[in-house]
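Researcher: Structure prediction, please.
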Amino acid sequence: MQYVDPSREVLAETLLAAGPGAATLCEGWRTQELAAHLYLREHNPRVGLGMVFRPLKSVSDKAISALAEESSTPAAYTALVEKFRAGPPKISPFALKTVDKNANLTEFFVHTEDIRRATDRWAPRTLDDGYSLALWAELLKRAAILYRGVDLGIVLVSPQGPRHVAKRAPVSVAIIGDPGELLLHANGRTGQALVSFEGQPDAVALLQTADVGL
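Model: Predicted structure follows.
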């Protein structure tokens, strides 16, 4: 099943429900900066490259800030979110289903939770089994990169049974949680991911202070 399009819908609805000026888990970004980021990465190739290649980062940052400022009113913000909801233009690489899935499934899930979990009161969503499996598959593709800065072995464990050795080292920690929670932890949302740990106490403590994610 294709989960990217429904995930885009959920993210758009979450952005609209929060409104402009709401907090997110993305440091320095309110909802309008996040909406600007999501729109520009699909509609402006130069800005999109700036999100990946550091030499163009300043270009990307300026474009996001400018569009976020233009979208600070409720009407302008709603218009921006609706443009994001409509999807990428036909000439965009994101219009290709393979690129869309590889680039956006994780992106949309994590940013939805960036909005939901920035509030004082939130609860984890109950995810479709197929969606959870799709998130698990995406996590396995990226886990080694996301935990590259951790000086430990990392074993990811889903309560449903799958285990994955993301990184090997003499001392390891197992991170246990549902696929969506493991994905959030691996992407640096370590304080909000509902996971538990198994390992030596000093190793667990090291993991909890490590630089995780991109």
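Model: The radius of gyration is 18 Å.
Researcher: Thanks, that helps.
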